[in-house]
Design a protein that fits this description.
- β4 (80-88), α3 and β5 form a beta-alpha-beta unit.
- The chain has helices at residues 26-36, 43-51, 97-111, 126-134, 165-182, and strands spanning 17-20, 56-62, 68-77, 80-88, 116-122, 138-143, 154-159.
- It has one domain (17-182): 3-Layer(aba) Sandwich (Aminopeptidase).
- By secondary structure, the protein is of the alpha+beta class.
Length: 185
Amino acid sequence: MAMPRESAATPEPQPVRVSPMTVDHLSEVYAIEIASYPRPWPFKCFMDELTRNKFARYLVAVDNTGAVRGYAGLWMIHDEGHITNIAVDPEWRRRKIAEQILVHIIDQARKRELNSMFLEVRRYNVGAQMLYTRYKFEPISVRERYYADNEEDAIVLRVENLGAQEFLDNYTKRRTALGKAMRGE
């Protein structure tokens, strides 16, 4: 007799507070890094990004218990932003945490009057690609064999003009929908 399969229901959205990463967050951030990537950045890289890289801004997503559930990095050089990473604790994925972080990054980029933003995403990370394209990041090129762990290609996604009306209209719509989801509406 076949056993019924458990429902693959999507977990409830998890509201988080996105704030600047500090050295005090690094142990939790690094635990997420190790759980998320087959070849994690060395711990020292995070320390250097926080303490030495004047172009870098790193963020954490903290839940209501004070636990770090995700993090992200953004390099801001001249009028361009490069999202270096967005990672969410594997146990907390599919709860809109990455989207909350992305919205915060876009807010920061707009406040700092950045004109454009880009990132690399694994060719087979369809979920991340869907998130970014919902926010009008468009594929512009492929970096072949970019990821050293498995030589997977990276797709470069870019928003060329953060001030374009089409981008702003979509961003406002998406940000509003995210806020409603966080409130359970």
